[in-house]
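Note to self: the last two entries modelled the partners one at a time, which told us nothing about the interface. This time every component goes in together.
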Amino acid sequence: MSQAGEIEEAAALWVMRREEPDWGLEDEARLQAWLALDPRHKVAFWELEHSWGQVGRLRRHSTRHWPLAAAGALLAASLVLVIAGPASLALSVQTYSTDKGGRQTTPLKDGSKLDLDTATRLRAKIGAERREVWLETGQVYFDVAHDASRPFVVHAGPKTITVLGTKFSVRRDGERVEVAVVEGRVRVDGAIALPGDIMLSEGEQTRLSLNAPQKVANDLAWRDGMLAFDHATLADAAAEFNRYNQRQLVVEGASTAAMQVSGRFRADEPEAFGRIMNEVFHLALRQEEDRIVISASPR
Amino acid sequence: MNTDAAIKAWFQREVLPLAPGLTRFIRRKWPNESDVADLRQEVFARVYLAARDALPVQAKAFVYAVARNHMIDIAKSAHVVSMRHVTDLESAPVPADYITPDRTLLARDELRRLEQGLGRLPPRCREVVYLRKVEGLSTREVAEKLGVTVNTVEQQTLYGIRALNDFMRGGSGKIQRAASVTTISPKVVRR
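The predicted structure of the combined assembly is written out below.
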C-alpha cells in the first residue's frame, strides 16, 4: 500500500474513534500529537472528517439516500426493542417550555438540572442508554449530572452537542445555534469546546471563540435576570430586550441603531435601558403604549 | 500566521472540492499511476504549509500551481522522469480561478457523488454506516444491534469512511485494505 494509503487508514481510525462516547481528553491529546507529527496527517484527517461529516447530512427518512440499508437497519432496531421488552418502549418524552419573560428551573430524573430562559421550548428523553434533549427554540443552561455510561446529547437544529457531565448553555434561534461552555468538555458535532469557549454556528458557518470567559459570563447573565453587552450595537441590544418583554424597544435611524453599548442591564426593565440611553448618549426617547422608541436627538 | 482552525475551514470549503479535478490533473501529468495518491496527499500538505502564512485568494490557481511545482521538484530530485517531462510540466498551463465553477456547484457535486457512493457500498457496510451516522449509535451498540463483533463493526466503519470519501473525491470507492487494522492500531489507538 502507498504511504498515502497508510496515512489515510490511520486517519480513518481516528475519525472513527473520535465518535465513540468514551473518547476522552487523553485520546484528544494523542490525536493532536499525531496530527502535529506530519502535515500529511493533518490534511488526511481533515479530508476524511469532512466527508464523513457529510454522510450525516443525508437525511434519515430519505430512501433515496438509504436504499435497502434503511429498511434493514430499522427492522433490526425494532426487533431489538421488542426483545428488550416494554421498558425501553415506555420511555416518555417530556416537554418543557416558558413564555416570554419567563424563567424556570427544571430537574431531570437523571439528576441533571436545566434552567430555561425566556420563550424556550424543549423536549427531553432520559433513557437507560442515552439522555437526549431537543431544543426547539430559546436558551437553556445545562448542569448535566456525570454519567459515563449515558452520554447526554442536545439536538439544536442542525447542531448536535454531546457531553458526559458538564455545565454549558445552548441558545437556538432557528438555524442559529450558540454554545457557551462553563465547565467540562462539550463536543459540538466534531469540534471540542472547553470552558470559556463559545461556538456560534449559522448555516454553514461555524465560529469558535477560544478562551473567552468574559463573553461566556455575559452570555449567562440572563440566569441572574440580566443582559450583558460588550460593544453590542443598539439594534442588537434592543432585540435582546425584546425577547423578554411585551413592551418592545424600537431603535429608529441607521446611525443610532449602529451605536455601540456595553454594560449590564435588567432584562425586564427596557424603560430603564431607554432612560440610560437618553441620559448617557442624549438620544431622544418616546414612550408609547406598547413601545419605547429611541432615536437621534432632534438637535 | 493563520490558526489551524481557520486553515481547516478554508481547506474543507475551498480545497477539498478541487480534489477530483486535481487528481485527474496529476494523473495526466505523471507517468506512474501508483504515485498519484501520494502526490495528491503531498500537494495538500504543501498547500496547508503555505496557507499557514497566508490564505490564497484564488484557491484553484494556487492548488494547481503547488501541484505542478511539486511534480517538478520530485521529478528533478528523483531523476525518475526525463528532462523532457520536466519541461512539459513547467510549460503546463495552470487553470485560472475565473473559470472555476461556482463553489456551491462543486459542493453539490460532492454530495451527489456521496449519495451515489452510498448506494454502491456493500449492504452490510451501508447498514453499519446508517446505524452510526443516522441513528447515532456507537460501535458497541451497532455490534449488539447487528449481533456481530465490535471488530467487524470497526472494519466496516473504516471501510465506509474511506470508500465514501473516495467516491466523494471522484474515485471509484475501491479501497485497498491493510492485512489487518491491528497492525497500525497500537500506535494510534488506546484500547
